[in-house]
């Protein structure tokens, strides 16, 4: 279902009137995690002011350490929904367990994110395949392209064809940066599937100063959009502080993408 052979035309995924996979580059921005109502209200304001039309934020967080902040859960979705609604921004947030789905429906989450650690959680993929919400499927940190395509096929096989691929960097021998952004995956996926492809430069590089260069490379390589971490005050972020852009940096980055997209 997800292969280009089965469907020649590019698929456009509609998210509350915002189109992903069409002519316009879409940037999904926001903090790594939902912290406080004030932080989310400010974040939503800055996301909208930068010209982004979709917002991200994690309420259920897949943390390496069980002692690290795990997210506010349902309470976080409530804060996120309240903040984003003020600016009519559709919300993107990670689902870690099918038991959270009722809560996601209650807060009318617009896009479900499946994180890198769950790309091959097949039962979870089957569950999101049964519902009619757009899904961002992040690449497993050590997943091959064909494993990633098959993971998407699990979702599509259940009837949900609203799938967006997100390249977020893969594990290699290099330790200078958090992951290696696999730019090659962008033209490969555009060739192999009809579905939109976006890039998360934040979790790829792991440092805020790398985000603009990786974003620009992604758009030049044909990505349909970006998923970027931005925090009103990055040094105070509860999670992934090193890689969060400031509101000004996000605005500046947004100003550079149109010319690149227009040139290809
Ligand atoms: C995230 O986007 O919040 C996240 C945890 O990313 P990843 O699954 O790519 O590590
Ligand atoms: Mn993060």
From TrEMBL:
A GO MF label: aldehyde-lyase activity
Domain DAHP synthetase I/KDSA stretches: 17-253
Keywords: Transferase
Keyword Transferase: yes
Any one Gene Ontology BP term: aromatic amino acid family biosynthetic process
Class of enzymatic activity (EC top level): transferase
Domain of life of the source: Bacteria
EC numbers on record: 2.5.1.54
Record keyword DNA damage present: no
Name this protein carries in UniProt: Phospho-2-dehydro-3-deoxyheptonate aldolase
UniProt source species: Gallionella capsiferriformans (strain ES-2) (Gallionella ferruginea capsiferriformans (strain ES-2))
Shown residues within the full chain: 71 to 334 of 338
